Amino acid sequence: MGALKAVILVGGGGTRLHPLTYEIPKAMVPVLNRPFLEHTIAYLKNYKVKDIILALNYLPEVIQNYFGDGSNSGVPLNYAVEDNPLGTAGAVKNAERYLTSTFVVLNGDVFTDLDIADMVAFHRGKGAKATIGLTWVDDPCAFGVVETDSDGRVRRFIEKPSPAQVTTNWINAGVYLLEPEVLQHVPPNTHYMFEKGLFPLLLKLGEPVYGYPSNGYFLDMGTPGNYLRLNCDLLLLKAKSALVGSLSREGVGCDKEVIIHPSAEVVGPAVIGSKCRIDPKACIKGPVVIGSNCHIGEDANIEVAVLWRGVNIGAGVTLKQCILGTNTKIEDNEQVINAVVTSDKARVALIEGSYS
């Protein structure tokens, strides 16, 4: 498909992953113990993307210090840092100096396996100025739907339609292919959105805008429930990351220096980070992700959970369908069920669901 550049809209910390993203950009939350953004970069690398521009505005130094120039990721990285949030299209306009040919844009909290090479072929075959990746949902009323004609050309956008307004179940998947000249319509240094600004304007101007439907995996991981679901889906092989090697549905992957007492039980799928200690009679039933330097106390029971690094679980603790932030401590015999807990004792309810 030839060389392709990409812009990842890393954006802010946001409130939807509250309280996990007070001190960390949303794109840096760990997924299978690796920053989410690292999975996205690996996905793009698979499609021979030659340069990636990260559009940043919240705690940009955290991301810049981790990824540097991209040498460790195998893809050159550039940064377009915003003084103030510029919106989706405004953020890409801020990176315009890097964009001289067809490029791909990804919302930084979307995990997908959409076939970019096939999307590029579609885009070029249609002579499109903009192509919007589409994903099917059963109930589109909470989303922006994209109505297309029989050739795939976009006819109109309907934002959060009522049931009576629904004409299609295809929604914007947050993956775009754009020609650089469309950025001339985006005002510089201004908050401006693709969804409500540029794309409707292009339709009004009669420019060729197409929708590319994909039946692949798609998940916006920007809520606690979806974040937990993504980790579980990867462990259960419902989705695959380009960053992670072989996983098995029943397997237990341990990093270096993990100590598991012989009387403890670990039932996969599970990933356990380095220097973890699991005490006698503890029971872990996957899907479970345990970050590095965690301690699981005696007789603790853990089921369907993501633990960030440095978590300390007391004896007799029960964890089920929960997320524990970095350095969180759970006292002996405490129960944490359907909740997000952080080290400063912040706790929010996690909507109960089926994650396995």
Description:
- It is a single chain.
- This protein has 6 helices and 26 strands.
- The chain has helices at about 35-45, 60-65, 85-95, 115-125, 195-205, 225-235; strands at about 5-10, 30, 35, 50-55, 75-80, 105, 110, 130-135, 145-150, 155-160, 170-180, 210-215, 220, 250-255, 260, 265, 270, 275-280, 285-290, 295, 300-305, 310-315, 320-325, 330, 335-340, 345-350.
- It is elongated and about 70 Å long.
Q: Percent helix among the residues? A: 10-25%
| Straight-line N-to-C gap | 37 Å
As a percent range, the share of strand residues is: 25-35%
* Major pleated sheet: 8 strands, mixed
Structural class by sheet pairing and helices? alpha/beta
Number of strands: 26
Shape: elongated
* Assembly level: single chain
Q: Which residue ranges are poorly predicted, with pLDDT under 50 across at least 5 consecutive positions?
A: none
Instruction: Compute the CA-based radius of gyration.
Output: 21 Å
Mean pLDDT: 93
The number of helical runs is: 6
Note the main attributes of this structure:
8-stranded mixed sheet, 26 strands, 17% helix, 7-stranded mixed sheet, 356 residues, single chain
